[in-house]
Design a protein that fits this description.
This protein is α+β, with helices and mostly antiparallel strands and about 280 residues long. It has 2 domains: about 1-160, Ribosomal Protein S5, domain 2; about 170-275, Alpha-Beta Plaits. Helix content is about 25%, strand content about 30%. It contains 8 helices and 12 strands. It has a 4-stranded mixed beta sheet with strand order 1-4-6-5, with helices on one face. A 4-stranded antiparallel beta sheet has the order 2-3-7-8, covered by helices on one side. Strands 10-11-9-12 form a 4-stranded antiparallel beta sheet, covered by helices on one side. A hairpin with a 4-residue loop joins strand 7 (about 150-155) and strand 8 (about 160). Helix 1 (about 70-85) packs across helix 3 (about 130-140) and helix 7 crosses helix 8. It starts with a strand and ends with a strand. The mean pLDDT is about 90.
C-alpha cells in the first residue's frame, strides 16, 4: 500500500513555559499542507511466519539524514512490534520531497503515516487515540499527523482542538534556504511567556490582520543568527504577501498571497514551491 505523508505549517508558535520533564508547553495552530512524501509499505515475501520479524527500509528523493535505525518510520515499526509481536516483516520505501529539518514536520509525518500504514497492513484496528499515543512516543509533532486537520495545539503539541481556518483561494508560497537551525539552540534563545493574545483567537480574525498579531517566538532569535531568513521574509512582504512567517523552529518561511505571486528571484539552491489552497 502507498500513503502520501504531507507536511504542515505553524500559524503562530508561542513557547509558554519549560516543563519539569525538560519539554516545553507551547501553543500553535497546525495547518496541513499538501506538499507530500510517498511511503510504500508491503509485507516481506516469504517471511510472514518468521520468528524474528524485521523491517527492510529504503529511501529515495531528497537526502534523509541520520542512520536507518533513527528514521521515524523504522522506529514506528519497532514501537508497534513491541506490543504486537505477531506482526510480520515488512518492506518500506520512502520517497522524500519535503525538506528535512525545515520546520515543516516532514519526518514527523512520515513516522505518523508509518503507524497508520502498519495498522492497516496488519489489521491492528487501533483507535485514533491509540495511534496518537504511539505517535507521541515518536515525537511532539507526530500526533498532529494522525488527525491531519487544522488544530489548535497545546502541551507539547499533542493536546489538539480542531479549528476552522479559511484560507480558500490563497496561494501558499514555501521557501527553504537550506539553512540548518539547531532546535536545541533555538529553544535556548527563547524566554517562555504567555502571549498577550492566543493564536486561537487571532486565526479567527481576517488574514490581513495577522501580520502584527500572529507571531512565531523563534523568529527573532533565529533571524538574528541567520539574517538571510529575515531578508526572505521582508522580500515576501515587499512582493505583496498578506501574511508571512517562519514555520516551526525554521528555517522555512511561508507566505499567503491573494494575488498572483510575482517573480521572487529565488536562488536555484533554495527549495521553493507554490500551492493553491482550497
Amino acid at each position: 500500500m502507498v500513503h502520501f505523508p504531507n507536511c504542515k505549517i505553524n500559524l503562530g508558535l508561542n513557547i509558554i513555559r519549560k516543563r519539569n520533564d525538560g519539554f516545553h508547553d507551547l501553543e500553535t495552530v497546525f495547518y496541513p499542507v499538501h506538499l507530500r512524501d510517498a511511503l510504500e509499505t508491503l509485507p516481506q515475501p516469504g517471511e510472514k511466519n518468521t520468528t524474528s520479524p524485521a523491517i527492510h527500509f529504503t529511501a529515495s528523493g531528497l537526502p534523509v539524514a541520520g542512520s536507518v535505525d533513527s528514521n521515524l518510520c523504522v522506529k514506528a515499526y519497532h514501537l508497534l512490534l513491541k506490543d504486537y509481536p505477531a506482526i510480520g516483516s515488512v518492506r518500506m520505501h520512502l520517497h522524500k520531497t519535503i525538506p528535512m529539518g525545515a520546520g515543516l514536520g516532514g519526518g514527523s509525518a512520515d513516522g505518523a503515516f508509518a503507524l497508520k500504514a502498519l495498522d492497516q497492513l496488519f489489521h491492528l484496528n487501533l483507535t485514533e487515540q491509540q495511534l496518537i499515543a504511539y505517535a507521541l512516543q515518536l515525537g511532539s509533532d507526530c500526533p498532529f499527523f494522525i488527525i491531519n486537520k487544522p488544530c489548535f495545539a497545546t502541551g507539547r503539541g499533542e493536546v489538539m482542538q480542531p479549528v476552522t481556518v479559511d484560507l480558500k483561494g490563497y496561494t501558499l508560497v514555501i521557501i527553504n534556504p537550506g539553512i540548518h537551525v539547531n532546535t536545541g539552540q533555538a529553544f535556548s534563545l527563547i524566554t517562555p511567556q504567555q502571549p498577550p493574545v492566543s493564536a486561537l483567537d487571532i486565526i479567527q480574525q481576517p488574514v490581513n490582520t495577522w501580520r502584527n498579531a500572529l507571531t512565531n517566538d523563534f523568529e527573532a532569535p533565529v533571524m538574528q543568527l541567520y539574517p538571510e531568513i529575515a531578508h526572505i521574509k521582508n522580500r515576501l512582504y515587499e512582493a505583496g504577501a498578506v501574511y508571512a512567517s517562519m514555520t516551526g523552529t525554521g528555517s522555512t518561511l511561508f507566505a499567503l498571497f491573494q494575488t498572483q505571486v510575482p517573480d521572487l528571484s529565488i536562488p536555484s539552491s533554495y527549495f521553493f514551491t507554490e500551492l493553491q489552497l482550497s
